[in-house]
Amino acid sequence: MTMYKQSKWPLVVLAALALIWVLPIIGILFMSVRPESEITQGWWKLSPFTFTLEAWREVWLKYELLPAFLTSAILAISSTVLTVVFSASAAYAYEFLNFYGKRASLVLYVASYVMPQQVLLIPMLMLWRSIGLLDNPLSCIIPFVGSGFAWSIFMLKSYLRDFPRELLEAAKIDGAGNISTFRHIFLPNAGTPVAAVSILQFMWTWNSLLLPLMFLRKNVPLPVLLSRIQGTYEPNWDLKAVAVIITAFVPLLLFIYFQKHFSAGSTLGSGGKG
Amino acid sequence: MLKRKIDWDAYILIAPAFILFAGVMLYSAFFTLRLSFSSWKGLGPIKNVGLKNYITLFKDPNFLRSLRVTVLWSLCSTFFSVLFGWLIALLAGLNPNRSNIFRLAIFMAYGIPAAASGIMLLGIFQTDLGLLNGILDSIGLSQWTNPWLGDKRTAIWVLITCFVWIQTGLPLLTCYAAIRGIPVQLFEASYIDGAGPRDIFRFLMIPFSLPGVQVSIFINLLNSLKSFDIIYVMTGGGPLRSTETIGFFMYQETVSFFKLGYGSASVVVMTLFVCLLSIPVLKERSKAI
């Protein structure tokens, strides 16, 4: 299918670069299965090499890793579901319906995409403090969802240009209103764009550190737990390595599995990481 | 032409998103702006102090340093990550069929939570158990070993290197997608016209990859201006506040020193920075609306 001759040398260069790129990942994998005494000698030294899963057993007792994993899952799943449902309904209205203030509000969403997360810190902190929402998962879910709309609506709307309008017309002729058309015709048929938004939002919330660091004290998600472990100058690198792997594997698997959605998302300018 | 009728039920569909968005984003934007003209410490009534915070800000050596660090950090990390991503995409474009696994290996770093990748990268740059010092030791260059992250001169460069490691994936993705999007007929036409591999590279692949470069410059620049996580985990802004970008300075002033008005003023300056850089892209998007 490719029309030009494919030479070998680019592959060799690429392989060398890829090796450099995965070195830190290999390092953390090595550290997680070797005893502490060998790590301090250098995780890259191959002899002596003792394979042990001690750290994998011990880490659950030493750190609050399991509760943090659950917190991460709760935050990421609920923010993703809310973002997807509300931005799909909004994007549907923006693309197919006609109402006052349509253009102005859309411009507002798009412009707020550039607003850094740091803007939210003080106002939200003060608000949660005064209504007693600090330490509640909602204190993170609400800003995650509210700021997610800055890109999700625009991204969904751009996908919708290719949506088969005949389906919507047919529903209308059958006498369905806009809202029931959205629920029964549109949502079940918008798989790809909805999946793309879900994955981006899920990864962004799973990975984010700044907001939970500010708003949660007791039940913290994985990135906050990691930064705390790092902040105490934890000397046990084997345990730290396991914690890193547990934090990274969920988003990494999703990321690898859904690579294609990222190319779509990134060309629309929404590949942002806080 | 007949004016389309208004769909009133559209408001039901947009309401949840708009209420949440306004409650979080617009409220925060206005409140931050309001606080930036005050000397609020979090308690009692908010007292106006006019432009005092901004004037203090531009006399504060810590803030001026964070401005310089931000410019260095953003320009260098964006330049190198986009350059590497672009070159790697071109290389992969020369041999697309078997480059998948290598592209994925480089792209992967972009999907790892920054808090996690920060600790992974310590495995390379740590003074006592990092790979870099280990290699220097083993090839007899022990005098070059250095506490890379504890040294004021090198810490920011190590951080930039780490951020390039993370961010190269995105330009690689966008440029590669652009190269793979070249229509096959163009290749056929060039062969018929007698173009060799070099010409194809020069006159097809390079120009077609440029839109990918453009998009990724914008995204990476925004990411670098807003970045916080990797700095927080790897150096905590140190040593001696030498790796604080504006995004981090703001956190320091509000969380460690609880100067809410002052911190807000620095966020406003940061946001202005970001907005200035984003004008071209925002214009383009508004057209799409």
Secondary-structure blueprint of this entry?
The complex is a heterodimer of chains A (274) and B (289).
Chain A: H1 9-32, H2 36-40, H3 54-62, H4 65-96, H5 102-112, H6 118-131, H7 138-160, H8 165-173, H9 178-189, H10 191-207, H11 210-215, H12 222-231, H13 237-257, H14 259-267
Helix pairs in contact in A: 1-13, 3-13, 4-7, 4-10, 5-7, 7-10, 8-9, 10-13, 10-14, 12-13
Chain B: H1 10-35, H2 52-57, H3 61-94, H4 100-107, H5 114-125, H6 131-138, H7 155-167, H8 169-180, H9 184-192, H10 197-226, H11 229-234, H12 246-256, H13 260-288
Order of helices and strands of chain B: HHHHHHHHHHHHH
Note poorly predicted spans of chain A: 267-274
Total individual domains of chain A: 1
Could you give a short account of the major beta sheet of chain A? none
**How many strand segments of chain A?**
0
Mean pLDDT of chain B equals 88
**Overall domain count of chain B:** 1
Report the mean per-residue pLDDT of chain A as an integer.
Answer: 86
Helix content range of chain B: over 70%
Structural class of chain B: mainly alpha
What is the H level of CATH, i.e. the homologous superfamily of chain B?
MetI-like
Q: Tell me roughly what share of residues is in helical segments of chain A.
A: over 70%
Class by SSE composition of chain A: mainly alpha
